[in-house]
Amino acid sequence: MAVHLRISSPSGNLLGLLPYPADLKTQAEHNGAGALTFTYPRNAPGAGLLSGDDPRLSLVIDGVEQPERYLLEDDGDDPADDAGEARPIQVGCRGALALLERAVIYPVGHTPGQAVQGLDAHFPFVNATPGAILATLLQRAQARGALPEVTWDFTSAADSAGRPWPTTYTVQYDAGGDLLKTVAAITGAGWADVRMEGYRLRAYVPDTVCATDHPGIVLYLGRDVLKGPRQRSRRSVRSHLLAAGDSGNLAEVVNPTAAARYGRREAFDGRGGITDGATLAELARVTLGGMGAASEGFTIELDPAATRHRPGIDYRPGDYIRYDQRRTDPTSLEPLRVRTIATTYDDAGQPTSSLELNDLFVEQRIRVQRQLDALTNGSATASRTPLPPLGDRNDTVAPKQPDAVLVGSWAYLDRDGQQHAALAVSWPAVTQNADGTVYDDAGNYYVSYLLPGLRIAGQDPQWSPEQAVNGTIAHYDQLPAGQRVQARVRTVDASGNSSTWRLSEEIILASDTTPPPVPSKPVVTSLIGAVRAVWDGRGAQGEEMPADFAELEVHASTAAGFSPSAATIVDRLAGAAAAPITGLSYGTTYYVKFVARDRAGNSSQPSAEASAVPTVVIRSDLADQIVGTAQLADATIIGAKIALATIQDANIGTVSASKLTVGKLNADITVSARIKTGDAGARVELNSGGIEAWNANGVKTVSVSANTGEVKLVGGLSSGTSGQRIEINPTVGLPEIRFFPTAGSNYAFINAIGGNNGAAYIGLNSGSFPHNGQTAAYRLYLTEYVSALETIRTDTQKPWGGTVRMNASEGAALAYMVEDKVHGYVIASQGGAQFGRRNDDGSDSELWLDNSALQYKGTFPNYWYTEPDRGLFTGTAGMTNWTAMSLSYGPTMKSPMVPIVTLRDWQAVRAWQVTASSLTGFTTTLASASADGSVGFWCYRI
């Protein structure tokens, strides 16, 4: 998957591309702005664009520009970084909804360009729909010149889907509050849901478009979900509520179920403006209904290779899905709302996503607020206390600290197999100031963590730099597993007033507890006084060892069914190899098991058991019959003691020249012309014709001719038993020569096989190596119909990588293949040449040359970052409210480009032309302004 970024101006003009982002992460939030973060090399193409005044970014995936727009707000780098000019720039962006933070509410009586002194510092709405409130505030802001790029498609009567607003509200806002906080207040109260598409704000009746239920999307732990820490809060549980209205009106309501389960827990709720006792009691009942049980939420990490449902495509923030760990009863799954979708792209552009489901506090609060709004006919007041004159305001009241800070962690492995811990810090939203007044000037929460047991560079542990969070959860990764950790959170309002810190409990960061797979069964063979245990480097099911595999323990014992322990370890292997176990007793059976260990110290279960008995050099029943020189005194065996013909050729072992005295061996002893070890079966014979050997079946396996020196062998021939060696015709089905370059079990080989009509095929094969998650090898294969050099999977013998094939009649091909599926290819034949790619959808993108023409099928890149020597630059781009569009090639081209441009505008017929062209880009100018026209372009280099 190809991922890059486009940078545009606020008006939509494309400034350039960022083709090489790294550590790219996006976060989409329900009713929130979302975020984009990444790093970018300082010396990479387009890096200078990151220093612009107000650049806007968009994400391009496989050539398709995504609809989200991001505001580049933070960037920085470290000049002391060892990477020098290639050091990374850290970039932080927020979604386009954050534009609303750049406009504030002015007093209702204010006229753009006029003074504000003496005006009432409020903006009231009476019986207004959410659409009317938002549209009015946006219109006022644009009249002052703010938010020029923002559009909206809802009205005071209907939402963006054309659905009538069902409820009106009476509300008053303080002057000075920004529009982003206003939108957050409206969505937080459950009056509307919002989404930003490009720069268009869309508002919907709550629980409609932004709350699609997907009963068929069920995430399963162990299949779709890699990790899914669950958080449960009982903090807000109450069983008794005392409610107070106006004129001394009081009401008490009780939740007997909560009282029985949690005991008596009391709460108070003041309701100004309520004078009717029945209404007050009903309000209290609804309020208490949201406090009767613990709330629960999940932060889950998805397995991108296993999950069938694509976050952000099959479901979006605000939608409802199911998770098999949350049930309403044993047979029913509870719908859980997707609060956020966080996606991280690796270096290959492959995404990994995590979800936040059913926030601990927000869902419950929204449900209660909607019921209360229905009971009070939608009346609300944003400011319950009169404001002092605007010029006299001096906010010094600090907000409360969060009621609690929760921490949770999980362990994970990076691509190199190193284990790390991730930390999630969460807290309930603060709703009051320290003096008990309403907290209505929210700023951010600031979060940091401490590793109390970890000294760095000899220094005492320090709190991490504070992270500003516009929400109630913060995430950290790349933390050391198994270390103690503590988090803290403070609240800071819009005026900079800060609460004191709220500390979490101290926990231990999660460590990797997943053991490696059970190793495959040992292959044990006998040696002289030893046994040899061979491991193929895989698990019992043929699987590869994980990235954090550390070593294989070889255990041996004389007891069958033994349990491996430190006392039974005889060797350790770092991968597929053989372990000789020496110094063993003859005649004793030795049992061998394998145990795999990872870098975290986790041990697998023992492998299946195998056994062997060490080989004996000589039979024990002959040992005592061997007579050596120590048993023979001089002259104890003389000629008189030897009967005629009792020592024959079959009885002679080794006689050295020093043992023969002249005159002692004479014609009285006759040695025949043949020495043999037997007359039938397995035997060796030395005769006048040469040396010959037979196997147990009577088949002659060795023949050395004394006359011609010709040697014939039947069976295997090896230049050694281990280490570097050559083996000819080992015990395999085909004629084969193996080459072992090292002491391991990996080898290259040449083999041959017969073909049709007596044809002979030959193959030259490399040793095996890991490739694309498989065990692979290179093979040169020559047959009567094709010659091929290819990368193959060793288990299936099918192509798995680059391949070159030639045919005497049809031509040659260079291709990349995965088993029987072709990807990229080049084909040359008598009729011409083809250069192409088999796309994921089954179609081909191909350049075809024949005798008379050059043809192309497929698509061209859509405004893709080019290179200085590229010959074509193609694509399409659109803008709003424009008369001129300047497009950049990205780099400076090596020679001039010729742009050919076509205008598409459904609103009117317009004249246009290319008014400027250079090595870096071109400009298209219209005869009259276009509201939303677009251009298609084809630029070629000359």
UniProtKB/TrEMBL annotation:
Listed name of the protein: Fibronectin type-III domain-containing protein
Domain of life assignment: Bacteria
Entries under InterPro entries matching the protein: Ig-like_fold (IPR013783)
Residues covered by region (Disordered): 377-399
Native species: Kitasatospora xanthocidica
A GO BP annotation: carbohydrate metabolic process
